[in-house]
Design a protein that fits this description.
With 116 residues, the protein is mainly beta. It is built from no helices and 11 strands.
Length: 116
């Protein structure tokens, strides 16, 4: 069982930045991939960035250059830094992991609101 705790959401002005955190209850090296997803009101949840156990990263084309995923191994935490925010970035951001021991887990989500 893996428990994920997201934090860092809130209200930000357009053009501003946020750093979201996803803290895992297990050693981060027991996790194959960690992804950040975004769900805007009335829309499907979409993957915005992912980091593998080796540290390789990838981001959706729509957010490349503005979103950066990173990891602090000592804290078992994955971060999503979001820059130059627009109202279209608003939504609930979820952390998702694929456990190396099997199973996939979601966090509870953190709300991001962007004021124009």
């Amino acid at each position: 069982q893996v428990h994920l705790a997201e934090s860092g959401g809130g209200l930000v002005q357009a053009g501003g930045s946020l750093r979201l955190s996803c803290a895992a209850s297990v050693d981060i090296f027991d996790i194959d991939n960690t992804g950040w997803y975004r769900q805007a009101p009335g829309k499907q949840r979409e993957l915005v960035a992912v980091i593998s156990v080796s540290g390789a990263t990838n981001a959706a084309d729509s957010v490349k250059g503005r979103f950066r995923i990173s990891r602090d191994n000592a804290k078992n935490t994955v971060y999503l830094t979001v820059n130059k925010m627009t109202p279209e970035d608003a939504g609930i951001y979820y952390c998702h992991v694929d456990s190396a021991r099997g199973g996939a887990y979601w966090g509870q989500g953190t709300q991001v609101t962007v004021s124009s």
